[in-house]
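stage 2 :: seqdesign
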C-alpha cells in the first residue's frame, strides 16, 4: 500500500516546485496552501497524514522554484489577475468564477505524474490555479466567487500563444407581472410570415405583423439601461392577441450579456408604465430557476367573455350552461392547427356564470390552464365538447375575451 512517506520519497526524485509537490498531498491538512504542503513534505523526514499542519511549515519556505510540471505558471499569477481585473472593467458585476485552461504541456506532464505516482490526495493543477487567482481577484475588487451561477465566468487561456481571458457573461433576469389593455398586441415579437423578419411590402418593411408587443413594451428600457445584446421573454402562459389581461400575468425577462446590472427598478417600472397598452407590477431581480417555475405553473384562470348568439335564447333555457362545468374535451382549434399538434386535450372547467345581454351573453368562466375559451363558446365545428353553441343549439361566437384573474 502506498504511504504518504513512500509517495513523497519517490516524488522527490522528480523536478517539482513546492506548489506541484504539495498539490500531490492537497487533501491532507487544513488551511494550508499547496506550496506550504510542499515545503512540509521536503522538511519532515517521517512524513505521514498528520504532518500537514502550520507548525511544520519551515520558516524558509517560499513560493516559486524550478519545476518540470507547471511551466512556471505560478510566477504569473499577478499577470493573470491583472488580465481578469481589466477585463471586468466594462461590466457591473457582483460575482465571478475563474475557469482555467492550463498550458497543454502542463496538463500532459500532470497526467504522466498521476499515472506514475497515483492520484491519492491530489488536486488538479487547474483547481489550484482557479482558487489562487480567484482569491487575488477578490482581494483586489471585493467581488465574490460564486460556483453556482456567477455573473461572469472568466476563463483564462494559459497557452503561451494565446494568453488571454475569455468572458462568459451570464444573462440577468427580471421578474414581473403584467396587465394588457389592448386587443391588438401579441405577447412576443411576431415576425412577418411572408418575409420572416427581413422586411417586405406586406409588413411595411418592418419585418413584423404588429409594430409592437408586450415583450417590446417591457424590454426596451431594460435593454437600454443594461446595454444587453438581446432580451428573451418568458411568460407564465399567454393570451390571444385580441384578449386583454387584468390578472397580472407573471413573466421573466432575460437580458443577454448585460454590461450593467445595477438598475433603478422602480424607475424602469414607471417608464414601462407610460405605455397605455400594458402595465407592469412587482418588478424585481429574478432567479434562474424561476423561468421554468413560472412557465410550468399551470395556473387556473378566470375569464370574462362577450358572446354573440345567432338567435335569442330565453333566460330559463340558459340554465343548461351549467353543463359546461366539469371535464371538457377540446381538439386542437382550427385557428392554431398550423402551429400546434392535432390532438384532443381534456381540461376542467370549474365555474360558469352568465348574464343575458341585448346582443347575447356575458360569461365568466373559471377554468384550468390551457382551456380554449373561444372554442368552449363556439364549439369549433364539433371539435370542442361541450360548448355554449352545442348546449344552446344556436351559433355562438366570442366577440371579446379578457383574462380577469390568474391564480398565483
Ligand atoms: Zn510546479
Ligand atoms: Zn414582411
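stage 2 :: out
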Amino acid at each position: 500500500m502506498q504511504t504518504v512517506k513512500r509517495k513523497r520519497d519517490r516524488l522527490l526524485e522528480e523536478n517539482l516546485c513546492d506548489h506541484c509537490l504539495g498539490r500531490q498531498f492537497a487533501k491532507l491538512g487544513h488551511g494550508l496552501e499547496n506550496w506550504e504542503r510542499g515545503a512540509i513534505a521536503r522538511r519532515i523526514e517521517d512524513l505521514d497524514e498528520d504532518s500537514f499542519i502550520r507548525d511544520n511549515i519551515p520558516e524558509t519556505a517560499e513560493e516559486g522554484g524550478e519545476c518540470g510540471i507547471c511551466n512556471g505558471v505560478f510566477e504569473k499569477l499577478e499577470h493573470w489577475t491583472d488580465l481578469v481585473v481589466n477585463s471586468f472593467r466594462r461590466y457591473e458585476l457582483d460575482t465571478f468564477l475563474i475557469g482555467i485552461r492550463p498550458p497543454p504541456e502542463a496538463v500532459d506532464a500532470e497526467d504522466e505524474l498521476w499515472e506514475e505516482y497515483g492520484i491519492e490526495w491530489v488536486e488538479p493543477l487547474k483547481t489550484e490555479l482557479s482558487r489562487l487567482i480567484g482569491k487575488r481577484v477578490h482581494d483586489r475588487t471585493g467581488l465574490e466567487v460564486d460556483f453556482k451561477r456567477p455573473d461572469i465566468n472568466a476563463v483564462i487561456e494559459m497557452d503561451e500563444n494565446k494568453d488571454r481571458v475569455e468572458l462568459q457573461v451570464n444573462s440577468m433576469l427580471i421578474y414581473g407581472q403584467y396587465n394588457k389593455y389592448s386587443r391588438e398586441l401579441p405577447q412576443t415579437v411576431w415576425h412577418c410570415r411572408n418575409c420572416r423578419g427581413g422586411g417586405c411590402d406586406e409588413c411595411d418593411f418592418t419585418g413584423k405583423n404588429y409594430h409592437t408587443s408586450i415583450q417590446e413594451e417591457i424590454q426596451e428600457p431594460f435593454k437600454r439601461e443594461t446595454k444587453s445584446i438581446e432580451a428573451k421573454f418568458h411568460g407564465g402562459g399567454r393570451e390571444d392577441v385580441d384578449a386583454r389581461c387584468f390578472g397580472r400575468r407573471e413573466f421573466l425577462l432575460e437580458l443577454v450579456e448585460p454590461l450593467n446590472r445595477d438598475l433603478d427598478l422602480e424607475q424602469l417600472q414607471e417608464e414601462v408604465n407610460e405605455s397605455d397598452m400594458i402595465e407592469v407590477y412587482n418588478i424585481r431581480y429574478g432567479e434562474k430557476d424561476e423561468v421554468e417555475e413560472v412557465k410550468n405553473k399551470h395556473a387556473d384562470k378566470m375569464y370574462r367573455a362577450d358572446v354573440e348568439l345567432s338567435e335569442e335564447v330565453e333566460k330559463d333555457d340558459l340554465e343548461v350552461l351549467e353543463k359546461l362545468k366539469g371535464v371538457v374535451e377540446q381538439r386542437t382549434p382550427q385557428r392554431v392547427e398550423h402551429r400546434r399538434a392535432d390532438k384532443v386535450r381534456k381540461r376542467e372547467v370549474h365555474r360558469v356564470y352568465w348574464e343575458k345581454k341585448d346582443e347575447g351573453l356575458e360569461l365568466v368562466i373559471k377554468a384550468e390552464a390551457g382551456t380554449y375559451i373561444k372554442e368552449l363558446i363556439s364549439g369549433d365545428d364539433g371539435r370542442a365538447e361541450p360548448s355554449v353553441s352545442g348546449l344552446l343549439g344556436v351559433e355562438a361566437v366570442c366577440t371579446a375575451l379578457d383574462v380577469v384573474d390568474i391564480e398565483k
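stage 3 :: structure notes
- The chain has three domains: 4-169, 172-295, 301-406.
- DSSP finds eleven helices and 14 strands in the chain.
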